[in-house]
Each structure stands twice: as structure tokens, then as C-alpha cells.
From TrEMBL:
Residues 5-335 form the FAD-binding domain. This is FAD-dependent monooxygenase. The keyword DNA-binding does not apply. It comes from the Bacteria. Keywords: Monooxygenase, Oxidoreductase, Signal. It comes from Streptomyces broussonetiae.
């Protein structure tokens, strides 16, 4: 008997879900309402698409497992993406000071435009699996409270399926669709710091091609709006410069204000770099940045035949760089379950949803525990437990400015190679208690060559 899976959404989460299902069914149909570009171009329906994206080591590992025999990493690097070491390839000012840079290697991350990443993954999945992408708008689910049996398309066309995966992103209507089948009682939570992203792309100046990724993090501990800035190397000899500000500290959309904002950050290094760089685009603004969590795994009832992944399940403040990796890890959970039991096994959808929920929890806690500290946040306030975790996290970050052991623990968690429990391992605890053995850097830890590049670009 032929088996079909339908995936709603041809973004990263949807394509990785298709890869996860491709060996378990005879047909995988991926549906998206947009016309997808044939190359690395921006697409509609992706509010954050023009802003900075970081593919962490944990997410890349999951992607490589989901698309075996095709090295997505190598394809990205061949297309111009950058692989950045967290230990040596990044200059970062945190709320606790500048991070030391180490000659020893740590985990890495991939930096490129979201358009390039999506195109490479889409090409890899459609070229190596039986997944087929079709343009169609899904308007509802077929079935009842006990089992989802397919989807309803615009124009009342129906498409039957043994398994439906909703990876339709922030705009998913899954809770409305479920209510129409009689599945209710789903809890949702939104934590909104009012973050606004502003991004502009520049040409990398002559001599600056090897300048490290540079970031000035927001400080959530000073009872003021958070403000941050990043210079991110991407393909095509370009810098993507992304600014972010929480409610009351939003970055502006005009060029003069954009530069002034970078110079007014806790350190002006981002502004000094771009003051001598040529802008290639205008300034793109996005406000789709709130943390939203649908607790589908806790629903009193859950129908067979339906799984929800990616932003349709949980969205995160993009400042933390977790969304793509969480989507990949969720697809990996789906792959493991269908590989073991097949797509029609009793209880499969519930097991997948609970497993994916666990993979979301750590990222959600990391994002929300920071966002609730900003003035004007909507949807949450820090409790006693949050304050205890914050106190320990600050101590760990203070140690990480000059302790390799503390920094390694932080890298493992932020790169999503491990969960937050890594911060409480014996070695990490000792490092946090001992503090930094090195004095904090007085300024950005640049090499003499990098200092010359910065001085040559500085027009301020």
C-alpha cells in the first residue's frame, strides 16, 4: 500500500521534515503558498529573511544527519558561506565584558544570507530524496479529533496523507485548524520585548576580508532597553550589519540614524567599521521578533497523523540565533521516530510532538529568561527562580571573559551541541566559582593587523 506524507511549508523546517520522511513513505509532497526562487534569492513569507542568521554547530550536525550523502556544510562553503570559530573568529562584547579570544579551537557556526542557506538546503533535499515541492495554499486539515487524514487546499481541493507535518512558520493556523476538528485546550505563551531588527548590507572593504565577526551584545541587566549590533560576513564579499533594539531602544530606518545608532552602542566598534564601508542596500526593518510557544505536546488530546515543527511550534527572539538549529533538531526527532515505527504507528504523532517539545524547551528558556528582564516586555516577569539562574549565568559569563573552561561551557550551550545542563557540570561549576584568571580586555581583543584595518576604516 502506497504511503504519502504532506509537509506544509517549504522553509528550512519543512524541507528538513521532508528529508526525515523520505525513506519512510513512498511520496513526500511539500506545499508552499509562495513561488520559490530558483537560486539564492529572498522570498516572501519570511519576515526575518533579510536579517542575520547563524547556523550553530548543533543545527548543522542535525542537518548533515538528515541529508546523508550530501554535505550541506561543503555546499554552503563552496557557495561563499563562512565558517566562524566561536573561540578565535569572533570579537564579542557581552554584558560582562569583552570575551577573550583563544588560539585553541572551539565549536564553529556558519554565516551566510538566509536566502543562500534555504536555497542550498532545498537543492540538497529535492536533489537527493523523493520530496516534491508544489505551490499551494493550505486552508485546513482533513479528519477528526482522532486522526488527521490530509489537508484542504485553496479552492476546496483535498490531498489525502498518512502523515501531515505543519512547518508553516510563524503564520501557522494550526490551533484554529485543530479547533475545527474538535481538538482544543492548547496553551500558548507570548513573551514580547518589542525587539526591532534593522539590517543593511555593505561591501567588504579592501583588506578587511579576514576581519572577525564582530558583535556588541545587548545588556539586559541595566534596566534600560537592550541595544545590539553585529557585523556578519556573508557570501559575495559582503558584510551583513544587523542592529536590534527592544521596546524604547529601536534602531532607525534612515542611513544617518542607522550609523549614529551603531556609534551609540556600549562600544562604537560596529559604527567605526561601517563608517568606511560602501552600503549596497537600503535598511530593512522587521518587527516579527516575539517569542511564541504553542504547548502542543501538553494538549489533552492529540490526533494521530499530525506533527508540528519549527516556527509553527515555537518562535524565538532572533537575537539568540537558535531558530534554525531548533528546527533541524525537531526534524531529527521526527526522523528517528518514523525510522523505528513507520508513519502510521499508533501514538507516533504524540511521541514526536513530545520529543520535539523537549528540544524546544532549552532554547525557549534561554531566550525568555533574558527577554523578561527588558523594560516594557509583554508576557512575562522574572520570578525568584529566574533571578537565581540569572545570577549564576552572569557569574559564568564573567568567568568566560578570561577562562577557557568557562568559555568552553558557554560555547557548547550557545552552539547547541549540548543542553544548558553543561553549565552545571563539575568543570563548569569550578570555572564559575574560580572566575577569570586573566584580567578583562580593556577593549576589543584585536590583533595588530585587525587594529590597522579598523583604524583605516574609521571615518568617525
Amino acid at each position: 500500500m502506497s504511503r504519502r506524507a504532506v509537509v506544509i511549508g517549504a522553509g528550512l523546517a519543512g524541507l528538513l521534515a521532508a528529508a526525515a520522511l523520505s525513506t519512510a513513505v513512498d511520496e513526500v509532497v511539500v506545499l508552499d503558498r509562495d513561488d520559490l526562487p530558483e537560486g539564492p534569492e529572498h522570498r516572501k513569507g519570511l519576515p526575518q529573511g533579510r536579517h542575520a542568521h547563524l547556523l550553530m554547530a548543533g543545527g548543522l550536525t542535525a542537518i548533515e544527519e538528515l541529508v546523508p550523502g550530501v554535505s550541506v556544510r561543503e555546499r554552503l562553503l563552496d557557495a561563499g558561506a563562512h565558517e566562524i570559530s566561536l573561540s578565535s573568529g569572533m570579537v564579542a562584547l557581552t554584558a560582562e565584558g569583552w570575551l577573550h579570544r583563544w588560539r585553541r579551537e572551539g565549536p564553529s557556526m556558519i554565516t551566510c544570507s538566509r536566502a543562500l542557506l534555504d536555497w542550498v538546503v532545498r537543492d540538497a533535499v529535492t536533489g537527493s530524496t523523493r520530496a516534491e515541492v508544489r505551490r499551494a495554499a493550505v486552508t485546513g486539515l482533513l479528519g477528526d479529533a482522532g486522526r488527521v487524514r490530509g489537508v484542504r487546499l485553496d479552492g476546496e481541493t483535498e490531498l489525502a496523507a498518512d502523515l501531515v507535518v505543519d512547518a508553516g512558520g510563524r503564520g501557522s493556523r494550526v490551533t484554529t485548524w485543530l479547533a475545527g476538528l474538535g481538538v482544543t485546550g492548547i496553551r500558548e505563551r507570548t513573551v514580547d520585548s518589542g525587539l526591532v531588527n534593522a539590517t543593511r548590507v555593505y561591501r567588504v572593504p579592501d583588506g578587511a576580508a579576514r576581519f572577525p565577526l564582530t558583535i556588541v551584545h545587548a545588556n539586559p541587566y541595566v534596566s534600560r532597553p537592550g541595544r545590539s549590533g553585529m557585523v556578519l560576513p556573508i557570501e559575495g564579499d559582503r558584510w551583513m550589519v544587523s542592529l536590534a533594539g527592544t521596546r524604547g531602544g529601536e534602531p532607525p530606518a534612515d542611513p544617518e540614524g542607522f550609523l549614529r545608532y551603531t556609534l551609540d552602542l556600549p562600544d562604537p566598534i560596529v559604527g567605526r567599521l561601517i563608517s568606511g564601508a560602501e552600503p549596497l542596500t537600503g535598511i530593512h526593518i522587521s518587527r516579527s521578533t516575539s517569542n511564541v510557544r504553542r504547548y502542543l505536546e501538553k494538549a489533552p488530546r492529540w490526533p494521530e497523523g499530525l506533527v508540528v515543527l519549527g516556527d509553527a511550534l515555537a518562535t524565538f527572539n532572533p537575537a539568540y540565533g537558535q531558530g534554525m538549529s531548533v528546527a533541524a533538531m525537531g526534524a531529527r526527532v521526527l526522523a528517528a521516530e518514523v525510522r523505528r515505527d513507520g508513519v502510521t504507528a499508533a501514538g507516533l504523532a504524540r511521541r514526536v510532538q513530545r520529543g520535539v517539545g523537549r528540544s524546544v524547551d532549552a532554547a525557549w528558556s534561554m531566550a525568555v529568561s533574558q527577554d523578561v528582564l527588558y523594560p516594557g516586555v509583554r508576557g512575562g516577569r522574572p520570578g525568584a527562580g529566574d533571578r537565581l539562574v540569572t545570577a549564576y549565568t552572569r557569574r559564568m559569563m564573567k568567568a568566560a571573559t578570561g577562562s577557557y573552561a568557562a568559555a568552553s561551557a558557554v560555547w557548547d550551550v550557545t552552539s547547541m551541541r549540548t543542553g544548558p545542563e553543561r553549565l552545571f557540570s563539575p568543570g563548569a561549576l569550578l570555572a564559575a566559582l574560580a572566575g577569570s584568571p586573566l584580567p578583562p580586555p580593556a577593549g576589543a581583543p584585536l590583533t595588530p593587523g585587525e587594529q590597522k584595518v579598523l583604524a583605516a576604516l574609521d571615518r568617525t
